[in-house]
Amino acid sequence: MSDASPQDSTTVLKVVDAFDLDDELRSILRPCEMVRDEQGRRHRLPRYFYEVPSREAAVKIRLTPHFGLNEFTLVDLKEASRLQQFPRYVPCAVRFLAFYLEQFRTAVGASVHIAVNGAYRSPLHKLAVSASPHMWGTAADVYRIGTTILKAKEAIDRYNEIAEDIGADVNVLPYGHVTGLNADDHVHIDLGYLTLIPREISEDRMEQPQEARPRFAFEERRRTERRGPAAVAGSAAGEEKTE
Ligand SMILES: [Zn+2]
Q1: Of 29, 57, 77, 230, which has fewest CB within 10 angstroms of its CB?
Q2: pLDDT for position 40
């Protein structure tokens, strides 16, 4: 029995191939394009994004028990104007970030507050000079933990250490005053240039023109829906239609 159709934006997240978006969005998100980091290494930008239909949906959709999707999509005027509107787009790898932040929250035993503009930043964002994991949706700038505003070196050092102890995938920026290399008013946590191709996406014929492939998929959000045979049939239906 599926009480939630795949179109119900409050329970499912729509996955889009950025190549299928309009010209303006493609030119902002730049799927699969190469960007150089500070060291001159090249990294390929993500291709698959969650489409966030509205502010209301962003607030309602939880990525983990303590992190709502909206916390990763809050932007200000430094972001490309198209990405200040809805629908908004965030790389699918943001779910890994949320998972690690949830571990971090448990480790510090307090709420973790992500800054506005502190998670996903598009390649057109004014702070996006060279490749940074923020463009992959895999970095978060935390400005407050519990009641502690992160400005002092001792606090930033301490929380950086706790973040690094979560696992080898976690990278932080040491305390210091060089933008991009250090942080002196937040804790920066990132997972590197990680991309996620959701399981709903079929990877065959990836190099074919986009028209030959499903235009998008819906990711099942609730455990009960994932278990239900009706939901499984529903999510596979889109793929069956293409020959
Ligand atoms: Zn950062």
Answers
A1: 77
A2: 94
